[in-house]
Amino acid sequence: MTHLRNDPEQQHEYPETTAGKPTVDGDAKVAARGANVFYGAKQAIKEVSLDIAPNEVTSFIGPSGCGKSTFLRALNRMNDIIDICRVTGDIRLDGEDIYDRKVDVVQLRARVGMVFQKPNPFPKSIFENVAYGPRIHGLVAHKDELDEIVHTSLERAGLLGEVKDRLETPGTGLSGGQQQRLCIARAIAVSPEVILMDEPCSALDPIATAKIEELIDELRGNYTIVIVTHSMQQAARVSQRTAFFHLGNLVEMGDTETIFTNPEHKLTQGYITGRFG
Ligand SMILES: Nc1ncnc2c1ncn2[C@@H]1O[C@H](COP(=O)(O)OP(=O)(O)OP(=O)(O)O)[C@@H](O)[C@H]1O
């Protein structure tokens, strides 16, 4: 079922199932029903319905070009900045339609933060990279509070120990892995509920990757995390739930172990056994 966005007459219907099965036992943090994403006339995501469980890591896997990143970006309206991109269907955060015209997109992106493939610190100090978000969102009244948020965020991102003596030096002077943890600290600093990660380790070496993976595991205690990854090993290591996409369709979603050991669909089986991808 496809609904047009922002149609006030539209009654949203919530089928209870995705491909005949509930995907989350309790309340979903994020729920998509019949979501479609188009770039001009090309449809990149087709009728995707899935639930993202709170305080879990969900990974999106699938062959190149299957729409993982497109769907991830639909979850915090990052696609809005692409002129030709259009989203239809229903995507909710804690039950609220994120594409409703009343939604403040800046606030939405604070609640649903994003970490990109390439670490992208601002050309500013380590401190300023983390302080920027809380400042523009008006989260702090005093310098002390800002200091506290910056320190806590760096600590949670597993970076404080390595940078506490050089907070005024440029963020761009850190190693790639440190820069990515700085970007995670920057995302955390505005107290998001969900963190979207688009191949966060693809530019990192194995040691830096292992640190980010450990961090993802620690962070799920406080946040809901969705990660796009090309690495099935990474999906198996970090996520509790996995969704497999193929040509814009969600083929199968389930607990990670089942997806990797006993998938239902031939396509999933083919992908995880390396027959295509
Ligand atoms: N800005 C854009 N404009 C037009 N088409 C796009 C744009 N971004 C992505 N696409 C197309 O949408 C489809 C899905 O792309 P997307 O990047 O979401 O896939 P992906 O599964 O994340 O791929 P990869 O694993 O290679 O990153 C592809 O056909 C891609 O060419």
UniProtKB/TrEMBL annotation:
Renumbered to this chain, the signal peptide range is none
User: Mind listing the UniProt keywords for this protein, alphabetically?
Assistant: ATP-binding, Nucleotide-binding, Phosphate transport, Transport
Q: Which Gene3D superfamilies match?
A: P-loop containing nucleotide triphosphate hydrolases (3.40.50.300)
Q: Which domain of life is it from?
A: Bacteria
The ABC transporter domain is annotated at 30-272
Q: Supply one GO BP term.
A: phosphate ion transmembrane transport
Q: Which GO terms describe its cellular component?
A: membrane
User: GO terms for molecular function, please?
Assistant: ATP binding; ATP hydrolysis activity; phosphate transmembrane transporter activity
Which InterPro entries does the UniProt entry name for this protein? AAA+_ATPase, ABC_transporter-like_ATP-bd, ABC_transporter-like_CS, P-loop_NTPase, PstB-like
Q: Give the transmembrane ranges.
A: none
Family matches, as SUPFAM superfamilies: P-loop containing nucleoside triphosphate hydrolases
Q: Where is the segment annotated Disordered?
A: 1-25
Name of the protein = Phosphate transport system ATP-binding protein
Which species is this record about?
Answer: Rhodospira trueperi
